[in-house]
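Record type: monomer structure entry
Structure origin: computed from sequence
Chain ID: A
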Amino acid sequence: MDLKQRTSGVLMPLSSLPGASFCGNLGEGSRRFADFLSRSGQKVWQLLPVNPIDACFSPYASISTFAGDPIYIDLEDLVRVGLLEPDEVVSIPSAPKNKTVFHAAREIQMLCLKKAFNRFRHSSVNTKYHTIFDKFVNENPWIGPHALFCTLSEQFGTFDWTCWHDKALRNADQDALRHIYPELEELVLFQTFLQLLFTVQWDELHNYCRNLGISLIGDIPIYVSKNSADTWSEPRLFQLDEQGQMNRVAGVPADSFNPDGQRWNAPLYDWEVHKAENYAWWTFRIGNALQRFDAVRLDHFIGFYNYFSMTPQPDPNDAGYWVPGPAHDFFDSILREFPNAQLIAEDLGVMNPGVHQLRDDYGFPGINVFQFHFDFRRNTDATEEWKENSLVCTGTHDTNTLAAWFDEVLADRKKAEPFWDLKFLLNILKPFVPSGSPLNRRTIIEAIVRKVMSSPGNVAIFPMQDLLQLPTEARMNFPGHAEGNWVWRLDESLLTDELSQQLEHWTTEFNRKQ
């Protein structure tokens, strides 16, 4: 993928793909969606992180920065290769069409995957997975610590490794791990098997998309979870005390999403240790992501320039403070290893000139979001300032849907002192409403999509919910709110030929069909 080319695409989480089961996966539903993108003239599929989700279903607080979530493994493929019998695959026809039910999906998935593993280990069947097992383990040094961490977490009943009652295992003591390995071997191999399945199936989907001319944009969360294989196996890389507890945590001060700021409860990096090790962990992390995706969005890019340090618990005497990040030293090291890496700087929120300078020094495209780029109080259209070297979009996984955002514009218009000036918005969008079309809610939202399509930004991305004009119930995430996030799911019946033709037309109209 070349981020300098003029293209367009869709943001669609893997978990939100349609299908008969309770969660989207790497199977037929993902290929049908890729086919839809191809028919619609789209060249880019942006995804959220595919790492294991946390208890709140967030992919941004994973137990592993390298692993894929087994919930996405396609069971039908295991039937085709002989690791499962057709009647062993549990299908639930009553799965909701517009909601992902993670708990039910994982329960069903694990029952089937354990049967597949037993056949993988003990039957005479020989599959594509057997062929590359040893190669996979040898080429992925993270898999050993990850598989051990998952196994021990299951044994101790928690991912919070600081609560494990065995101190030696809590400290990842190598002698203790070697001693206990024989009794855990089958369970560790099961976890390794899960990652093998995910990786093989992911590579097959990636190749399928590549053959359609579709590039995948991935996402690297800047922080990892405290309860993760990463902090357990490499505690020196994080700001943790001798017991593994966090000295300070990551977060952000007050912003437009949350007036009280956000405490993410993720450990901060010890950047001095990373620097002393030539950023080896980060280099491997980015290399792993670049194998999985064609381009990568660097979440919370500001954190590489300076990061916000907070107390683990709210403290009225310590609201947090900014600390310089590794900045140029970090990116010089990364780009020496990956000089052609296609990296996108997620530069949203309150920035300072130093962050933008860091972005521009390396030519990374930033991100422009339509919903953020108006100030109707001053009647200015900031979209006119969008640059060519940028990714432009109507919204993100953290914003409301475009239709719900517009409804908020209408609602604010009725207030005594409206923030929004609807007349100004309509004036901006007038050139993008087709001649003779009625000026109604639908045509206005379509005009917003066309305006973003028309922008100079090289890559235009549209959340699927925005193309479908879905209400706020389809919002993916509300930052700072723990409940009700990440569960929207696409009803495949909405992927109509009319929508495909319309999207293809807009893509051609604004010269984004390469």
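Annotation 1: The first helix runs from residue 28 to 39.
Annotation 2: The two ends are 12 Å apart (CA to CA).
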